Every structure is written in C-alpha cells, then in structure tokens.
Amino acid sequence: MSDFDLDLRTVEEHIDDELELEGSIILGFLDGETPDDEWLEAISKGNVLVLNVDGDVNELAAGFARDVKESGGNLVHFRGFLLVTPPGVDVSTERL
C-alpha cells in the first residue's frame, strides 16, 4: 500500500465552490426591438442568451457583440439562433 492521503471532505468543499453557477438561460428574439443595454445587462448577470435571429445577425448584434467579446463572453450563430454566453461559459462547437 502507498501512503496516499486523500481528504474527501476538502475535495467536496472545493468542488462545490467551483460548480456554483448563477444565471439562467434566457430565450428571446433578436429583431432590433430589445435595446442592446438589456442584452448586456442580462449577460453581466451570468445569463446565457438563446436568441432567434430575425434579420441580419451582424447588424442586429452590432450594438452588444463587441462588449460581450471584450469581456470574455462568446457569441455563436447556429441555425438561425445566436447563443451569447457570459465570461466563463464556453460553447463547444466540436460536434458541428
């Protein structure tokens, strides 16, 4: 036997700390009617946006996309939807 010492209580405490996620998944429409500041506020609170794009995604997201990217968030356009995530939430596109 080895002298391997594992304190499971300490590990569990760290796992709980690391897995705390805040926010929700918000479904909506990206059609130019919602002000850019509302999308930015939702992202700043840790929410993920799944927006059905009605129009040109580049034009409709121009008012908030740069701020999201600069803060470390992600934007992914997929099948008519724009997924917008806050910093720390990645979107895996490996299976596409």
Automatic annotation (TrEMBL):
Pfam families: DUF5779 (PF19091). It comes from the Archaea. This is DUF5779 family protein.
